[in-house]
Design brief:
Layout: H1 4-14, H2 22-25, E1 31-36, H3 46-56, E2 59-65, E3 70-76, H4 81-92, E4 97-102
Antiparallel strand pairs: 1-3, 1-4, 2-3
Length: about 120
């Protein structure tokens, strides 16, 4: 039996997840959702995005508007979840921010009586 076959069998027995590097499993979100107060008229303006990036110490790009007057931004250079939480805290401290949160995939939960 060739030497590669036992290794392949071991990988199959451990599962496919053994083949995925750990760093890829726990990548933090790099997009955030920010809702600004009514005082912010153009949250997509390049000057505003540049000022937001400078004030928070993170490279940012405007991605798109959302319903409810919130906006999605991409943050560059996030190292880990702790770094992301720090950037979100910095954004949330601004007087013109109503809320800031990581952009994560959400799944609707069935209501009472639904399956």
């Amino acid at each position: 039996m060739p030497r590669a076959i036992p290794g392949c069998l071991l990988i199959l027995l451990l599962g496919v997840s053994a083949c995925v590097p750990q760093a890829q499993k726990s990548m933090p979100a790099t997009q955030v959702i920010i809702k600004f107060s009514d005082a912010v008229r153009q949250p997509d303006a390049p000057e505003f995005v540049a000022r937001l990036a400078r004030d928070t110490g993170a490279g940012m790009q405007y991605v798109r508007p959302m319903s409810g007057d919130a906006h999605v931004y991409r943050i560059n250079g996030i190292r880990d979840d702790a770094h992301l939480r720090g950037v979100l805290a910095s954004i949330s401290e601004r007087n013109d921010v109503v809320y800031a949160e990581a952009d994560k995939k959400m799944q609707a939960m069935p209501g009472k009586g639904e399956k």
